[in-house]
Amino acid sequence: MAHATDTTGTEPTRRDFLMLTTGAFGAVGAAALVVPLLGQLAPDAQVVAAGAPIDLDLAPIAEGQAIKLFWRGKLIFVRNRTKKEIDEAKAVDVATLRDPQTDEQRTKAGHERYLVVYGNCTHLGCVPLGNAAGEPKGEFDGWFCPCHGSHYDSSGRIRKGPAPLNLPVPPYAFTADTKIKIG
């Protein structure tokens, strides 16, 4: 007489083990394919850095100090202006400027002490001096381009030399009293 096997019990069979092992290997294999695929769909770090906005804490920038940074591959000057520099910039007769803009048009209301401008001369793209200690600031207490002699004031406006336009102001906004987001 043949013995019947009980297949209704809870004891795992070899078939159960093989099914579980096959399913686990299949899941690992699928993940091994999907993860790199999703990684390829995301932009790389250079692309993100090239266009992503950047946050900057202005608190470490001392009064009268300026820093340089790069956003989208372009040089940016950020300057914490002194009261004297702000007063000089506001006192300028806008009608005498080659590229007429008031200081108020170039800064954010309530945050006039911080000036944020692109850091290339509008003549031929040179980098003006006036950010580091000991660098000449030109005749108007701003920036001086030694290559061709352009002078910018403390508001980044062209005052003398061949440059046709003011240093442009990049898109930025204050996110807190001493924090900005450029871009």
Automatic annotation (TrEMBL):
GO CC term, one of those recorded: plasma membrane
Cofactor dependence: [2Fe-2S] cluster
Chain ranges of the Rieske domain: 83-181
UniProt-recorded name of the protein: Ubiquinol-cytochrome c reductase iron-sulfur subunit
Localization annotation: Cell membrane
Catalysed reaction equations from the record: a quinol + 2 Fe(III)-[cytochrome c](out) = a quinone + 2 Fe(II)-[cytochrome c](out) + 2 H(+)(out)
Family assignment from sequence similarity: Belongs to the Rieske iron-sulfur protein family.
Gene3D superfamilies linked to this entry: Rieske [2Fe-2S] iron-sulphur domain (2.102.10.10), Single helix bin (1.20.5.510)
CC cofactor note: Binds 1 [2Fe-2S] cluster per subunit.
EC numbers on record: 7.1.1.8
Transmembrane segments: 17-38
Xref: InterPro entries: Rieske_2Fe-2S (IPR017941), Rieske_2Fe-2S_sf (IPR036922), Rieske_Fe-S_prot (IPR014349), Rieske_Fe-S_prot_C (IPR005805), TAT_signal (IPR006311), Ubiq_cytC_Rdtase_Fe-S_su_TAT (IPR019470), Ubiquinol_cyt_c_Rdtase_Fe-S-su (IPR006317)
PANTHER family listed in its UniProt record: CYTOCHROME B-C1 COMPLEX SUBUNIT RIESKE, MITOCHONDRIAL
Keywords of the record: 2Fe-2S, Cell membrane, Disulfide bond, Electron transport, Iron, Iron-sulfur, Membrane, Metal-binding, Translocase, Transmembrane, Transmembrane helix, Transport
Short name of any one Pfam family annotated for the protein: UCR_Fe-S_N
Membrane topology listed for this record: Single-pass membrane protein
PROSITE patterns cross-referenced by the UniProt entry: RIESKE (PS51296), TAT (PS51318)
Note: The Rieske protein is a high potential 2Fe-2S protein.
Presence of keyword Ligase: no
Protein task: Component of the ubiquinol-cytochrome c reductase complex (complex III or cytochrome b-c1 complex), which is a respiratory chain that generates an electrochemical potential coupled to ATP synthesis.
Record note on quaternary structure: The main subunits of complex b-c1 are: cytochrome b, cytochrome c1 and the Rieske protein.
Class of the enzyme per the UniProt entry, highest EC level: translocase
GO molecular function: 2 iron, 2 sulfur cluster binding; metal ion binding; quinol-cytochrome-c reductase activity
